[in-house]
Write a structure and sequence with these properties.
With 420 residues, this protein is of the alpha+beta class. The chain has 3 domains: 140 residues, 2-Layer Sandwich (Beta-Lactamase); 124 residues, Beta-Lactamase, CATH 3.30.450; 82 residues, no CATH class. The strands form 2 sheets. It has an 8-stranded antiparallel sheet, with helices on both faces. It has a 6-stranded antiparallel sheet with strand order 11-10-9-14-13-12. A hairpin with a 5-residue loop joins β2 and β3.
Length: 420
């Protein structure tokens, strides 16, 4: 709410920004633009994570001078670079856009650049309009996201989230098509490609930290640029396609890589492609190995299922065989009670119980009908029906001595057994 032209406020802002930059490794820099004077102060990190400060001050007549400091505000302060041919920061696109709507949001900040920032340009910025108590705009604050920080962020995500056992020798990556049609590598999981660049001829003309994809030391990236060229020839723009692309590329050592990629916000800037690649042979070997394991498991399950089926069949067949034999013997009149403790199926237990009850009933029936008659009926396999047959009989009547006395002293069953 106070103009940063005030030296005391400016120093407080510088300390605040420096502390936040040191505590956040993914943040590249902070910028503050004063709406009244156009004064701009930007604090950023260099490749060694040292803090640099760039100040842009109006010299009148629409002339602005920028100075890049190292160790600003300390006894070791020194000027690295100065340039008197700078643009008014209030003419930057993001300033013009956000000063009107006064809303916070992300912006493609590569649209603006100061001469002193050629080696340290931001990529994305989060813009926050600053207002006084009356709601009037007093300035704009930006939180900048640089190339180095983006690379580190992508590396950390890759190392934390990526399962190396299932990467099949591949990597995720981010490519960008710049305004001059250069295709550069924005994100790569290997830190060696941003910590040291062995050949200055392989970097972008506009940013020494962005390696050209077609000259990248990683052959997997170079192989993908051939796929991009093929897409161009077939009248497709991989940086502006809504669908996900899949294709196979051949690296310099003739290894084959399977690529999948998608564009971020097709039709909008920046032109980015997020992709991933895996070694085709390693992936295929993994698939074949998985299929073999699956087949072995299926064979094992079939064998186990066969043994279980045979065992269950025996649990049913053996008791059924015994019961069938038992019923066959009943048909011949050989009625013998028998138990079978090996039966464990409820329905078969009920069947066995029914057969035993039938035996009991037939044996009881024999008490009243001669067993030969009962056996004859069972052997005939026909239903017994009452009928009459005329025959000549010789009947002998006799009396037993003291039969009445004997019969009165015996139980009925014993009496029947006695007289046959």
């Amino acid at each position: 709410k106070t103009s940063i032209n005030n030296p005391q406020v400016r120093n407080q802002a510088r300390i605040f920004i420096a502390n936040n930059l040191k505590s956040n490794k993914y943040m590249d820099g902070f910028s503050i633009i004063d709406s009244k004077s156009g004064y701009m102060i930007r604090t950023m990190k260099n490749q060694e994570d040292k803090l640099l400060v760039a100040e842009t001050i109006s010299e009148g007549n629409q002339v602005f001078r920028s100075t890049l400091y190292e160790n600003r505000g300390t006894a070791e302060q020194k000027v690295i670079l100065t340039d008197a041919n700078e643009n008014d920061p209030r003419h930057f696109d993001f300033y013009l856009e956000f000063k009107d709507n006064k809303k916070k949001g992300w912006f493609n900040s590569r649209g603006y650049s100061q001469n002193v920032l050629h080696d340290y340009p931001p990529i994305l910025s989060y813009v926050v309009p600053l207002e006084d108590d009356s709601g009037a705009l007093v300035g704009v604050l930006t939180l900048d996201f640089g190339v180095l920080q983006l690379q580190k962020y992508l590396m950390d995500i890759t190392n934390k989230k990526m399962d190396r056992d299932y990467s099949f020798g591949g990597i995720p990556f981010v490519l960008e098509r710049r305004n001059n049609q250069e295709i550069v590598v924005i994100g790569h999981p290997d830190p060696i490609y941003i910590e040291s660049i062995p050949d200055p001829s392989i970097v972008s003309e506009s940013n020494k930290f962005l390696i050209l994809a077609e000259k990248h030391p990683d052959q997997r990236i170079r192989a993908f640029t051939k796929i991009i060229e093929k897409e161009y020839k077939e009248k497709r723009d991989p940086f502006n396609e809504n669908s996900t692309g899949i294709n196979i590329g051949k690296a310099d050592d003739n290894s084959l890589w399977l690529y999948s990629w998608t564009a971020t916000y097709p039709g909008q800037k920046p032109d980015w492609v997020i992709g991933v690649c895996v070694n085709r042979d390693l992936a295929a070997a993994s698939v074949i190995s998985s299929l073999n394991i699956t087949l072995l498991v299926l064979v094992f399950l079939v064998i186990v299922a066969g043994f279980v089926t045979i065992r269950n069949a025996r649990l049913f067949s053996k008791p059924l065989e015994r019961m069938a034999k038992d019923v066959f013997e009943i048909g011949k009149g050989n009625i013998v009670f028998a138990s079978d403790p090996n039966i464990i199926v409820k329905e078969m237990i009920d069947l066995k119980d029914g057969i035993e009850k039938m035996k009991s009933g037939l044996l009881s029936f024999r008490k009243y009908i001669p067993y030969k008659v009962v056996n004859q009926v069972l052997a005939s396999r026909k239903t017994a029906e009452p009928f009459a047959e005329k025959k000549e009989l010789t009947i002998f009547f006799s009396d037993l001595e003291n039969f009445t006395t004997i019969s009165e002293s015996l139980e009925p069953d014993k009496l029947v057994k006695l007289i046959g």
